[in-house]
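Task: sequence design from structure.
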């Protein structure tokens, strides 16, 4: 895989940072994107210096994807894998949520992911190969009361990825939606679910495990990959349950998280 370039958004923490470590070990050249420059610089110094480019970008800003691609310059035509990993959640009653927080979440989770894909895919198609990896969630599969907008953004990511996979057939470019369940990372603190029972326990997977899974599924060009046997079973079983019942069950789980 040497001489291949990956761009990872949200590489300053959690799954994105661990994926950068995995792909650096595999010989990929890295373009790391996030807002916290000092964290990206520290990661670049730890990995293969000279093989890492750091770009500071706030993906919640209007036209962030276009700004980022303009900054990439010629590197935009060298991206062999784009990992749309940056994302955030918000645990709150919908009508009490700050409008700007909802807007930022929608921009990062959906708009930036969509526009970066739109801007990067044509050069991948002209070279006849490429990987688009979108970090979705098990939240993609059902409505999520108390995290209503977050779950809806992840449903968008899954639907978008599956549709794009069909459009891309025969081009050499694949799309993969990775669907992790709760994973140890900075996510819970940002979303406001870090005090939830079980979140500090050792049973939930860490970001390193999910990053390894992400890399394997990307190479296999899987369109949808749910992490963990338990969640694969749950996602399968809930297909046979009334959607209203599933929504109420998820709402109960989320209300426990907020207490
Ligand atoms: N952890 C979980 O339980 C879980 C479960 C399912 C799916 N996921 C998904 O996994 C992905 C990675 O999350 P994580 O768990 O690794 O969380 P994390 O540790 O909080 O990492 C999130 C990353 O996104 C970046 N980011 C957030 N807002 C940004 C913005 N406005 N502009 C640019 N970058 C931004 C952060 O960097 P800066 O703050 O430096 O900008 C950080 O590097 C997300 O899409 C999340 O929805 C997580």
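Answer:
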């Amino acid at each position: 895989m040497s001489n291949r370039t990956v761009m990872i958004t949200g590489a300053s923490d959690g799954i994105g940072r661990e994926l950068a470590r995995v792909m650096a070990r595999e010989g990929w050249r890295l373009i790391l994107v996030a807002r916290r420059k000092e964290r990206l610089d520290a990661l670049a110094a730890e990995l293969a210096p000279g093989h890492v480019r750091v770009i500071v970008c706030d993906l919640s800003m209007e036209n962030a994807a276009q700004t980022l691609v303009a900054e990439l310059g010629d590197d935009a035509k060298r991206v062999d894998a784009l990992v749309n990993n940056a994302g955030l959640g918000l645990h709150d009653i919908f009508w009490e949520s700050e409008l700007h927080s909802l807007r930022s979440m929608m921009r990062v989770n959906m708009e930036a992911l969509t526009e970066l894909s739109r801007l990067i895919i044509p050069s991948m198609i002209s070279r006849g190969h490429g990987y688009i990896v979108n970090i979705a969630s098990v939240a993609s599969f059902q409505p999520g009361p108390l995290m209503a907008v977050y779950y809806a953004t992840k449903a968008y990511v899954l639907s978008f990825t599956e549709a794009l996979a069909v459009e891309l057939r025969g081009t050499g470019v694949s799309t993969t939606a990775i669907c992790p369940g709760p994973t140890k990372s900075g996510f819970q603190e940002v979303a406001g679910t870090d005090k939830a029972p079980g979140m500090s326990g050792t049973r939930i997977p860490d970001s390193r495990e999910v990053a390894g899974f992400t890399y394997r599924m990307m190479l296999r060009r899987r369109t949808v990959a749910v992490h963990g046997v338990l969640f694969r079973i749950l996602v399968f079983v809930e297909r046979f349950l009334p959607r209203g019942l599933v929504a109420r069950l998820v709402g109960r789980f989320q209300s426990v998280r907020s207490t």
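The radius of gyration is 18 Å.
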